[in-house]
Amino acid sequence: MTKKILLASVFFTGAFFTFGQNEVDAYRLSNTYVQGSARFDAMGGSFGALGAESGCIGINPAGFGRASVSAFTFGLSGTSVKTDAHFNGNSSSMDAFKVRVPNLSGTIVSDVSSSNSGLIYTQISLGINRVANFNNSFNYSGQQFESLLDVFAASANGTAPGDLYNNLAYTSSLAYQTYTIDPDANNNYYPRLNSGDVIHNRTVFNKGGINEYYLAISANYLDKIYFGASVSYNTVNFSESYVHKETLTDTTGVSLRSFVYQYDYTTKGGGANVKLGAIFVPVDYLRLGIAVHTPTFYQLTDQYTANMEALHNDGMRTVDPSFVPADRYKYRIWTPAKFVGSLGLVFQDNGCINVDLEYVNYGWARLKTTTDGAYASYNYAAENATIKAQMVDALNIRIGGEWAINNTVFIRAGYGYYPKGDTLARSYGKSYNQTISGGLGFRVNRIYLDMSVRYLAQSSVYKAFYESRTELNIANTTFNVGIQYKFDYK
């Protein structure tokens, strides 16, 4: 692969120009939020020591060992994402709504107590869980003196016009083709701007997510120790597109009136991981859980392209199709391992409380070259050094509780605290993201109906380039309705 410099639309970091795959990709796939059934979401995803719930696959597979009756769970959710953008004193807002199946699972329980081995029940579980949601679109506009063309011109300095496509195909080459930057005799470039401000308008569309397909086995030993293991395959689908327009406020002495730059990027692929866990019940009211998640070993394929057009006083200038860049590249990402400790308190049939402490060091993530011989290998030493230096560890905290009324009506609430694992991200807005959730559950014989609302608040800074700063506040609200049917399997 020829590593061409890309203009990066980067969240949570201060990096703008980047070589292909980088720390942004690694952090995006590592920074996930546990999702699951409506009951699971209502309690903030805090289930590491409680179990008997399909969402526990995201925390501790030993939780399946708590099941004594086979069950089938199905859910349907609607997620509303509202993003408020603040740029140079101007504010704007964009909303998006998406309906999906966040959780589908089945658990088959076998009574093996007759074997006299100490095992009482064993379980096999299959399912799908939503691991991450990348849907987030926003728009900003306003005036400032600095222009994207300043960046394109500075990047091209010292490069002959005939070499721009080979070295700067996604940025300066497009600007040169549309006559928005010009070289002098020494190949120093300048933008076709005067001393006035330019009006910026950029719309960014982010879509996609991560789904987890899992198989788990678990067991119950004398109602005292529960253990489990799972193998998961995560599918990734992410796309980012943006359209950046600038309009000159003063066109005195220059031909340029406005320009539009567009960039499109998609990544698809998948990766596997293994989770191991155990739950201990020293006394009836106390449960202790421990789990380890291996890295997820992703194989990914990126595709990207960019284009540009500019309006001059004598008409529109576009890029010759032969100079419109388009690339495709395969590579690998290893996300960091996770370690989870959980404590649960059970108040007989009246309710429960659970606390999860999840440790993850984002600096452990690594980019790896492709093993596909159709693509050139690449040494990611510099990118991995940046990951190690810029990413830090974090202790995620989830707290959830449930109160039962006559074992037929359930009231639930939860809270999640997620410190940012990027040192640059911690300096923008709050140093953490958080979730607040609640919900209700109803039991009628073998049927359980659950409803939940989960609110995820995030803050960040988006930089189109160094002098361009947009503050983002993202409100992600998920409404989840699920049904569970418990049945005997023999």
Detail the topology: elements first, then pairings:
Elements (H helix, E strand, L loop, with lengths): L4 E3 L2 E2 L5 E3 L3 H8 L7 H5 L27 E18 L2 E11 L2 E9 L7 E15 L2 E9 L3 H9 L7 H5 L3 H6 L3 E3 L5 E3 L6 E24 L3 E24 L7 E28 L2 E8 L3 E16 L2 E4 L7 E9 L3 E9 L4 E11 L4 E4 L11 H10 L2 E13 L3 E11 L3 H4 L5 E13 L2 E17 L6 E18 L3
Antiparallel strand pairs: 1-3, 2-24, 4-5, 4-6, 4-25, 6-7, 7-11, 8-11, 9-10, 11-12, 12-13, 13-14, 13-15, 14-18, 15-16, 15-17, 17-20, 18-19, 19-21, 21-22, 22-23, 23-24, 24-25
Describe this structure in words.
The chain has one domain (5-147, 193-487): Outer membrane protein transport protein (OMPP1/FadL/TodX) (Porin, Beta Barrel). The chain has 490 residues and is mainly beta. A hairpin with a 2-residue loop joins strand 4 (70-87) and strand 5 (90-100). 10% of the residues lie in helices and 58% in strands. The chain is elongated, with a radius of gyration of 26 Å. It has helices at residues 23-30, 38-42, 148-156, 164-168, 172-177, 381-390, 423-426; strands spanning 5-7, 10-11, 17-19, 70-87, 90-100, 103-111, 119-133, 136-144, 181-183, 189-191, 198-221, 225-248, 256-283, 286-293, 297-312, 315-318, 326-334, 338-346, 351-361, 366-369, 393-405, 409-419, 432-444, 447-463, 470-487.
Short description:
The protein is mainly beta and 490 residues long. It has helices at residues 23-30, 38-42, 148-156, 164-168, 172-177, 381-390, 423-426; strands at residues 5-7, 10-11, 17-19, 70-87, 90-100, 103-111, 119-133, 136-144, 181-183, 189-191, 198-221, 225-248, 256-283, 286-293, 297-312, 315-318, 326-334, 338-346, 351-361, 366-369, 393-405, 409-419, 432-444, 447-463, 470-487. It is built from seven helices and 25 strands.
